[in-house]
Design a protein that fits this description.
Blueprint lengths: L2 E3 L15 E3 L12 H4 L15 E7 L17 H4 L4 E3 L6 E3 L3 H4 L6 E6 L6 H10 L21 H8 L9 E4 L18 E2 L22 H21 L3 H16 L2 H7 L6 H7 L3 H14 L4 E6 L8 H26 L6 E6 L3 E2 L11 E2 L3 E6 L8 E2 L16 H11 L7 E3 L5 E3 L12
Parallel strand pairs: 3-9, 3-10, 6-14, 7-8, 7-9
Antiparallel strand pairs: 1-2, 4-5, 6-13, 10-13, 11-12, 15-16
Helix pairs in contact: 6-7, 10-11
Length: 446
């Protein structure tokens, strides 16, 4: 069994380490073969005729980005609320963001700003789970190890099951870490994400699962494939059900590791220096670039986990030097790149975290957890660009317009990707569970 360590580890304030291990697949019969169970049963995917978006890139700023220091400035508030950053004009008259987002400010006409997202879960792992699944977690924030929703499916898993795979790439991919709460739940391991547990900004980056054992020649790999096919034929002859159908998905996994198209999609080194520099030679920047390559290659849902936003202490230097500039460059480059390649209309891009941050700067010059108000950014995929939806009060503490909840967010993704959010699947107890709990598509966004 091939094990890929989850690292490097990173932590939020609850002290939970993000270092785990993922078992990617058996290697005994085909050297380096992975993903047969992940690929299994994607042939059951729906045909979403109403889809405006073929793919979704979900950029998750893990830890909680401060909305008032980025997208929802409050220049009239006292310094202990507004912080040190100043508002600047954007490409849309009357819309301002802070001066830490100069690149995005020039292209606000290409995306939508939703300032009234709100929910009641102030925890990191629980909030992450809630956003990814739309269901309240059955564990406490701070549990270690972090439970990875073993019951309800994540939105990426829903996309995998409902829409399915196109081409040889997996439908649902996470990078450069597994997304907390991003697991398949009761939908089963065949709809779990393919996790690229590596930093694409590193010079030696590669997706090792795409390559058979270097000690095996092509002839030996082919021989092992024929041997596996013979065993599968024996199993089909003597059994029905899973043993009878698994061979189809082993063949898909084999086609992935032998597919020039798949290798091309993962080969970020083939991009020009100009393009890579435009995204920024950072983990978040190169992850966004790789996400673009993956949706271009056929992936349906690519979740980018971008850690570091749990800014409790002396937050403004790191926000100014590292966090906001890197996100500003990565997001603006991603939207521009997709637009120039003619992919933005069919690719839904979302940037958010599990929460916002407190209106008032704390005694340690940081901002604490605050889920009652948060900003979400939407681009492409049939959403309206250049608009602001919702508003918060003078302290950015709560929406003054109708709050937009997690179910509304997930229902909007479903609608744009042509999925019926009310469609049900039976859980292990035989109960019909809808894709998303009651809510509505975000009014005015589409």
């Amino acid at each position: 069994m091939l094990k890929i360590p989850f690292g490097p580890a990173h932590r939020n304030c609850n002290g939970i380490s993000r270092r785990h291990a993922i078992r990617l697949g058996a290697t005994g019969l085909i050297g380096g073969l992975t993903l047969p169970r992940i690929l299994e049963s994607q042939a059951r995917a729906a045909n979403p005729a109403a889809a405006k978006a073929k793919s979704c890139i979900f950029l998750f700023l893990e830890g909680g980005p401060p909305h008032q220091d980025m997208w929802d400035p409050k220049p009239e508030a006292p310094i202990e609320i507004r912080g040190p950053f100043l508002p600047i004009n954007t490409s849309v008259p009357g819309t301002t963001v802070t001066d830490q987002l100069p690149l995005c400010a020039k292209m606000v006409d290409k995306f939508a700003i939703v300032r009234s997202h709100s929910h009641k879960d102030n925890g990191h792992s629980t909030g992450y789970h809630y956003v990814m699944t739309g269901r309240k977690p059955n564990f406490a924030d701070g549990d270690n190890p972090v439970p990875n929703n073993d019951y309800y499916p994540s939105i990426g898993t829903i996309v995998s099951r409902e829409i399915g795979q196109r081409g040889t790439l997996p439908a649902y991919i996470n990078l450069p870490h597994p997304m907390q709460g991003g697991g398949p739940g009761f939908y089963g391991a065949e709809h779990a994400p393919f996790v690229i547990e590596a930093d694409p900004s590193q010079p030696d980056f590669e997706v090792k699962d795409l390559y058979p054992d270097a000690r095996l020649s092509k002839d030996r790999v082919s021989t092992r494939q024929r041997l596996l096919a013979g065993i599968d034929q024996f199993e089909r002859d003597r059994a029905r059900g899973r043993a009878k159908t698994m061979s189809t998905y082993y063949e898909k996994a084999y086609s992935l590791i032998t597919s020039p198209e798949a290798k091309k999609a993962f080969d970020i080194h083939s991009e020009s220096d100009k393009v890579r520099d435009a995204y920024g030679r950072t983990q978040i920047g190169q992850s966004c670039l790789l996400a673009r390559r993956l949706v271009e290659g056929g992936a349906r849902f690519v979740g980018v986990d971008a850690p570091g936003w749990d800014v409790h202490f002396n937050c403004f230097p790191s926000l100014k030097t590292d966090l906001i500039p890197y996100a500003d460059r990565a997001f603006s480059a991603l939207v521009t790149d997709l637009s120039e390649r003619g992919l933005l209309d069919e690719t839904l891009v979302i940037m958010m975290g599990e929460m916002g941050r407190t209106p008032r700067v704390n005694a340690q010059a940081g901002r604490d957890h605050w889920s009652m108000a948060q900003t979400i950014i939407f681009a492409g995929g049939g959403t309206k660009p250049g608009i602001v939806i919702g508003a918060t009060d003078r302290e950015a503490a709560a929406p003054t317009t109708e709050p937009i909840g997690v179910s509304d967010l997930l229902r909007t993704i479903c609608a744009q990707m042509g999925m019926d959010a009310d469609r049900t699947h039976l859980d292990p107890l035989g109960r019909p569970i809808p894709l998303v709990d009651p809510g509505k598509v975000i009014d005015g966004l589409t």
